[in-house]
User: Which sequence fits this backbone?
């Protein structure tokens, strides 16, 4: 039974040793700096060694790795939950701030993302791509309402795949850089890192912690609470607010700014 996992465990061990030896690196960029953590190196190297052309890992081994990830995520969530306990009073005091951070996801995806998607030439795919950050619960909403073979289904899956491949790397670098500028309170940044994805939250909160090590426990607590709220409340918010607004906004903006709009061509 363990033989089929042996190669995966050895590769994982090598990745951990190599990335930890590289260690944390900071590169100066303008007023702040990019923070490169071992987790980011591991993600990049993991993507490379899983390329089919290299034949380092088989498809079956990749599926097994995915199963192992489920167990690892459970352990990670348990650790975060234990961290949240001692900070529960502080979390309750920040209740409204944690709740209202959900509006940031709405403004960033629908209000900003949809017009850009239309300018790039997307049609109904833009609705699926920008009504949320497109993680698993959001895919279920689109699948139930439109079906996965629809333009909306293609849009949501496109962003989901991009987020899976590059999301943690992108948000980790972004969070570390914004944190290094030290304009925002680290706890506000921690709230913002809870986007509804465990891997993205871990990457973002890890980068913020690297900049503010003295507030490591508070950052982990706020990030976890924010992520939990986004996962639970976000489902209803995207279903009853974001998706209807995205549809309305699409109907209004597409004739005006859509790249291949017939109405735009007639004007």
Assistant:
């Amino acid at each position: 039974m363990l033989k089929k996992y042996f190669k995966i465990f050895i590769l994982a061990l090598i990745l951990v040793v190599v990335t930890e030896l590289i260690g944390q690196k900071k590169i100066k960029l303008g007023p702040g700096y990019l923070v490169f953590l071992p987790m980011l190196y591991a993600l990049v190297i993991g993507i490379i060694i899983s390329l089919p052309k290299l034949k380092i890992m088989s498809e079956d081994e990749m599926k097994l790795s995915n199963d192992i990830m489920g167990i690892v995520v459970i352990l990670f969530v348990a650790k975060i939950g234990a961290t949240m306990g001692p900070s529960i009073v502080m979390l309750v005091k920040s209740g409204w701030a944690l709740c209202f951070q959900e509006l940031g996801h709405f403004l960033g995806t629908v209000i900003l993302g949809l017009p850009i998607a239309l300018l790039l030439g997307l049609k109904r795919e833009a609705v699926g791509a920008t009504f949320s950050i497109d993680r698993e619960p959001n895919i279920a909403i689109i699948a139930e309402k439109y079906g996965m073979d629809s333009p909306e289904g293609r849009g949501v899956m496109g962003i989901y795949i991009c987020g899976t491949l590059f999301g943690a790397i992108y948000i980790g670098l972004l969070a570390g850089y914004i944190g290094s500028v030290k304009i925002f309170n680290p706890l506000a940044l921690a709230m913002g890192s809870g986007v509804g994805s465990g891997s993205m939250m871990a990457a973002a909160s890890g980068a913020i912690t690297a900049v503010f090590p003295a507030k490591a426990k508070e950052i982990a607590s706020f990030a976890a609470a924010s992520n939990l709220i986004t996962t639970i409340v976000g489902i209803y918010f995207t279903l009853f607010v974001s998706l209807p607004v995205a549809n309305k906004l699409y109907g209004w903006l597409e004739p005006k700014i859509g790249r291949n709009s017939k109405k735009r061509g007639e004007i």
Observations:
- The mean pLDDT is 81.
- DSSP finds 13 helices and two strands in the chain.
- The two ends are 67 Å apart (CA to CA).
- Residues 216-257 form the longest helix (42 residues).
